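Notebook entry, structure prediction.
Reason for the run: the old model in the group folder had no record of what sequence produced it. Starting over properly, with the input documented here first.
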Amino acid sequence: MPSSQLCSFYPAVVRTTPRTGFYLDYYVLDPINGKMVRRMVQLKRLLSRYKSDREKRIAAQRIADELNAKLGGGWTPLHETEDGRLYTPIAELRDKFLMAKEREGVRSSTMLNYTSFTHLFLEWCEDTGRAKKYSGTFLRADAVRYMDYILEKGNGNRSYNNTVKALRCFFNWGLEHCYCRENPFEKVKLLPKQRKKRILIDKGTRDRITDYFRTEKPQMLLVAMLVYSSAIRPKEIANIQLKHINLTKHYILIEETNAKNHKARCATITKEITRMLVPLMKRYTDTSYYLFGTGQQMDPAPRPARNNYFAKNWNKMRLELGLPMEMQLYSLRDTGLTDLLHAGVDQLTVQHHADHSSISIQNIYTDHYDPGLNERIYSNAPSF
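New structure, fully documented this time:
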């Protein structure tokens, strides 16, 4: 063996025996006694998914290359325990993560979120040649480059921060289950929070929206009313079934599995909404139907409307009526809450109606630019 004074390690090589199968064999310098220490990494379990010896050898060599790159960068395995899980491909780690979350029984919307952000992350890994990286060798530098990519796509601060938090969750799971030594996204700083880019929708504009939807798509008018009058969030509306509607007691049940904060509540419905619901309830007697189903008209159906369908219809209307981009579907909820406060309803009642955890949270949603504010003050301000 060459003198240890020449280098701090001897590269890992792939070896095999009939009994142990493939393994990595390499040496590193122990700085305490100045001697080279032999290390071996067993790969039999990790390579069990490959059928032929040729495939196993190719995979083993990839692992050896990754290990040698780490050794070349100054990393040492001394006083650490090597585990084959550290060499799990990123794509395989994603599959294991999603399976684990599914077994935990997370909500369908949460599961969809997990699937979406890991899919985008995996696509970037493939485009940049990082798909061959292993879970234990995905470093902070890789994480920073991914977040730079997110910014380059034009995402705002909120989207950027959500991505950081989501990938922290992903790699925390990997860390907890010994697929990683550290979370590469843990030290990625969040960006400052930005104000929500929404403005209130005045009565005249709401009348224009009403006329448009009444002609083009009546079910979207009902969606808009539920957001404005009942303070039901669009994602919650998509999962309303006919069995959740109680016309006698004037509410719609938002189950805990559907609610944003995982707390069930009864959302009040107005006379105006009730008049629209009565004929639907008479026409569709199967109460398992979703109030807004698949199809162009979004009539009740066994399957719910797609998640982004409300937004697409709203944006189409907004463009045709020439409304500003800041007037979003969710703006109706903020407007409805603000109008209740202007009508003299006390803050605590509005807070409960909005399903907000506190009045301070409620203020975030009611503190928006009001296009009609100046005109109301001009017309109604008392004399000096």
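Summary: The beta strands are 9-17, 21-30, 35-42, 245-246, 251-254, 265-268.
The old model has been moved to the deprecated folder.
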